[in-house]
Amino acid sequence: MAWFKRKDKGILTPTEAKKEVPDGLWFKTPAGKIIHTRELKENCYVVPDDNYHVRIGSKEYFEILFDKNEFKELDADLESADPLSFVDSKPYPQRIQASQKKVGLKDAVRTAHGKVHGQDLVVGCMDFSFIGGSMGSVVGEKIARAINYSLEHKIPFLMISKSGGARMMEAGYSLMQMAKTSARLALLSEAGIPYISLLTDPTTGGVTASFAMLGDFNIAEPDALIGFAGPRVIRETIGKDLPKGFQSSEFVLEHGFLDFIVDRRNLKSKIALLLKVLS
Amino acid sequence: MLLEFEKPIADLEEKLKDMKELAQESNVDVSDAVKSLENRIKQLKEDTFQNLTRWQRVQLSRHADRPYALDYIYSITDEFVELHGDRNFGDDKAMVGGFGLVGKESFMFIGQQKGRNTKQRQMRNFGMANPEGYRKALRLMKLAEKFKKPIVVLIDTPGAFPGMEAEERGQGEAIARNIRDMFMLKVPVICIIIGEGASGGALGVAIGDRVLMLENTWYSVISPESCSSILWHSWDFKEQAAEALKLTAQDMLQFKLVDGIIEEPLGGAHTDPEAIYQSVKKEILSQLKELQKLSPEERVDQRIEKFSSMGVYTG
User: Fold this and answer.
1) Would the pLDDT of A156 be above 80?
2) What is the residue-averaged pLDDT of chain A?
3) Size of interface A-B (CB pairs under 8 A)
4) Which pLDDT value is given to residue A271?
5) To the nearest whole angstrom, how far is the Cα of A228 from the nearest Cα of chain B?
6) Which of A42, A95, A149, A257 has the fewest CB atoms within 10 Å, measured from its CB?
7) What is the DSSP letter of B122?
8) CA distance A32 to chain B (A)
9) What residues of chain A lie within 8 A of the CB of B205, using their CB?
């Protein structure tokens, strides 16, 4: 005899209806510790024991940064086209659709205007879950437009980079997004509007070789992989293993390419401080 | 050194040579046979070079006999003063530069330089610049700006060097800064892809009022080999990768990602270097004339606008 009798049959709750991360979801840290996802969220997705920064996306960064999680999203409707009719193991449009369905995003960057401790800020944030955060026309165009928005409204710009680099399926177009974004940053710089670049794990390739390294302030999360060439390529070039910590945030700071490293739990206050000292 | 598709032509040319020699020795009239063979050669050349696959163009862009940056510079200029060093770390031999006189016009020439033999290739690091190379290029470009001299950049690289020291010295930062600062240069900037235009390594010196490609060159975000290795998980799909990337001069012009193509002699630039030097020289001078009609501000605005319009998306 059952202790509880199920009266309604076939109860199904669609995923979208589950507003909160349900109890009983646990996260296993790389160190092997199991912690509650709610605890993780309350800690800005940083593992309390070892300060491991869990990879998160634009949704989480906006939540962490913007006051009351209020913001106006910019150019939310841009989507990739397929200018080259690119096919490898599957056609590029199918790859885009599959990614959109899987991660619920239109492409690998979101841009928004909101307030950080009361100060206006335009934020662009990459989503690594969307084809490795790769930069195609949509990513380049959205970042360029966000910078334009900053220019027009004289609001500082923050770019959160998290990308494997260029999107091969857009080949030449992808390459030129490095130029497009850098051109806008040249104008922003000339206008004297602050640009903060936050590099997170991982930031490599064409993103490192364009907007990510062009901040008035280049800052990074701890222990992020930051580099131009990926570790595998370098290993193949030099034919030996790379030293521990090579291309980590700390390594890049030591070599003079970062202003400081910021723990994600202090990110909002540090950004607000930078804005304050410049205002 | 011959490419696979050059061999049939070379064989016929060899035959023609033999025939002519034989005729001279034996005093036999073979003029009809010579003529017909010459026609066959011409026909074969046209058939081969007017129907090149994308991969074949990549092969031509890397041809061992192809002219390199300094070959162009010394042939185009009446006088040339090479300048060295980034004033910070060192002198990168994969990136060369200096002032050169073409007639009465003085230019800053910058080039990515490959080597022709083992020793040179090593010295030039196979045309792969380190951060100090990009910084040297930017230093020279700003020098040109200071003295109001136009800039010509000759691009030919398999990529920025992916080594440990390059990372330590900020390869990404060096390229990023070049891209941004080139947009603001007040003097005319003409960029010409003379061989390989690989990704950020090329783009780091390729922000020009005019970006031109020689007929048998490639310019893309990744080499066909690396693309094959990443997307097909094998090095064997480079032909397919080249097709998929649409990386030739003809493709890039069609996409409006470059501004023009400089025709090469039939058979490729290496078969008649003098001819290609003259074409490049002529193009530089005529492009400069056009660009000089604009004010520095107009050039900067148009440069930014041109690159800003690159991209395809919906919504």
Assistant:
1) yes
2) 92
3) 184
4) 98
5) 5
6) A42
7) H
8) 30
9) none
The whole-angstrom separation of Cα B211 and Cα B182 is 13
Helix, strand or coil for residue B258? Answer: coil
Using an 8 Å Cβ cutoff, are B106 and B67 in contact?
no
Number of domains chain A contains = 1
Please judge whether B199 and A206 are an interchain contact, meaning their C-beta atoms are less than 8 angstroms apart.
Answer: yes
A77 to chain B: nearest residue by CA? B315
Whether A228 is covered by a domain: the verdict is yes
Domain membership of residue A42 (yes or no) is no
Nearest CA in chain A to B246: A84
By residue range, what is the domain housing residue B123?
Answer: 57-307
Which residue of B169, B181, B230 is in closest CB contact with A168?
B230
Query: B19 with B143, same domain?
Result: no
Same domain for B134 and B30, yes or no, is: no
Tens-place pLDDT, residues B31-48: 899 999 999 999 999 999
Is A46 part of any domain? no
Range of the structural domain that residue A274 is part of:
56-278
B312, part of any domain: no
| Interface ipTM | 0.96
CATH number for the domain harbouring residue B98:
3.90.226.10
* B201, B302: one domain: yes
B84 and B39 in a single domain? The answer is: no
pLDDT for the residue A17: 44
Show the 3-state SS of A183-219: HHHHHHHHCCCCEEEEEEEEECCCCCCCHHHCCCEEE
B219 touches chain A (CB under 8 A): yes
Residue A109 contacts residue A128 (beta carbons within 8 Å): no
Contact between B200 and A138 using a beta-carbon 8 Å cutoff: no
B68 and B41 within one domain: no
Q: Could you give the number of structural domains in chain B?
A: 2
Q: How far does Cα B158 stand from its chain's mean position?
A: 11
CA separation for the pair A71, A113 (Å, rounded): 6
**Domain containing A108 — which CATH number?**
3.90.226.10
> Could you write out the DSSP letters of every residue in B20-78?
HHHHHHHT---HHHHHHHHHHHHHHHHHHHTS--HHHHHHHHT-TTS--HHHHHHHH-S
CA distance B210 to chain A (A): 14
- Mind listing the pLDDT tens digit for each residue in A49-87? 999 999 999 999 999 999 999 999 999 999 999 999 999
pTM: 0.94
Q: Which residues contact B224 (CB under 8 A, 6 or more apart)?
A: B55, B58, B238, B239, B241, B242, B245, B247
For residues B87 and B46, membership in a common domain is answered with no
Q: Which of A106, A206, A238 sits opposite B164 (nearest CB)?
A: A238
Taking the CA of residue A13 and the nearest CA in chain B, the distance in Å comes to: 32
Q: Are residues B34 and B167 in the same domain?
A: no
Integer Rg of chain A from CA:
20
CB contact under 8 A, B184 and A186: yes
Report chain B's mean pLDDT, rounded to a whole number: 96
Residue-wise pLDDT tens digits, A207-219: 999 999 999 999 9
Does residue B39 sit in the same domain as residue B66? Answer: no
Tell me the chain A residues in contact with residue B252 when contact means C-beta distances shorter than 8 Å.
172
For residue B314, tell me if it sits in a domain.
Answer: no
> Per the domain annotation, does B313 fall within a domain?
no
Residues of B in contact with A179 (CB under 8 A): 179, 183, 203, 207, 307, 310
